Amino acid sequence: MNFGLAIVLAAGRGTRMKSDLPKVLIELGGRPMIEYVLDAVGQAGIERSVVVVGYRAEMVRDALSGRPGVLFAHQAQQLGTGHAVRVCQHILAEHDGPVLVLTGDSPLTQSTSLTALLELYEQHRPACVLGSTHHPTPAGLGRIVRDATGEFMGIVEEKDATAAQLAITEVNMSTYVFDGNELKHALEKLNNNNRQSEYYLTDVPGILKAEGKNVQALDVLEVCESLSINTVEELKLVEAELVRRRDAAGPGL
Question: Which of 16, 31, 125, 246 is catalytic?
Answer without folding.
Answer: 16
